[in-house]
Design goal:
single chain; 210 residues; alpha+beta; 4-stranded antiparallel beta sheet; globular; transcription regulation; HTH_bacterioopsin; transcription
Length: 210
């Protein structure tokens, strides 16, 4: 298994068709960013910001499939946003299924950094798909991916929360005693978010052990 650390610049966001979404998040003061699920040409992300995002503009963005404001406190405001980058090739969706996942994505005021984990061939093909779309990720580091000691460490915080909640509620019992809609209600998120979180988490865990 290999891992590539890559970075994307602001012009890449523009070519992908998500520049305005990134700009809205930055205008609100990004405090934290976590990818909950990825489908190649888009993702479901959780964003923590200092002030509320301009929600009218957020709703009007072509690239935004849906969004939900999930928490407010004196320190931050949190959103779950599902988006699809309209200018990315569909081939990336197939490549995303072959990757274990993207790890620790980080959006800054100058671009974004992330790591791609999978076979060398899959990582190379993924980068080729980006370049075909006129986007040239900068390869910062490439090497062996050793993984982490604990299996659940392979998951994002939100994936771990979803899996643990589903397990405790009986989602993995035989026969199953609750539905993904029940888990979503417990987590106070959309049912499609839970379904994608669980699917991505299960694939990551199976990828580690198989």
């Amino acid at each position: 298994m290999r891992e590539a650390h890559v970075s994307l610049t602001d012009p890449a966001f523009d070519r992908m068709g998500i520049a305005e979404l990134v700009s809205l998040s930055r205008d609100a003061g990004v405090l934290g960013f976590e990818e909950l699920a990825c489908h190649g040409t888009g993702a479901v992300v959780q964003v923590a910001v200092e002030t509320p995002i301009d929600e009218d503009r957020l709703s009007d963005l072509e690239c935004v499939d849906w969004w939900e404001r999930i928490a407010d406190s004196g320190d931050d405001h949190r959103y779950v946003i599902a988006f699809t980058a309209p200018e990315l090739p569909e081939g990336l969706a197939e490549r995303a299924d072959e990757l274990i996942g993207t790890c620790e994505p980080n959006v800054t005021d100058r671009g974004a950094t992330l790591s791609l984990v999978g076979s060398q061939e899959t990582i190379a093909a993924t980068i080729d798909e980006y370049e075909t779309a006129g986007i040239s990720p900068e390869l910062r580091k490439f090497g062996t991916y050793d993984g982490r000691d604990h299996p659940l460490a392979e998951l994002t915080d939100r994936q771990r929360e979803a899996v643990r909640t589903a397990y405790e509620m009986g989602y993995y019992e035989v026969p199953r005693t609750v539905t993904s809609e029940d888990v979503a209600a417990e987590l106070e998120v959309d049912s499609s978010t839970v379904a994608e979180l669980l699917q991505r988490a299960e694939r990551n865990l199976l990828g580690r052990h198989l």
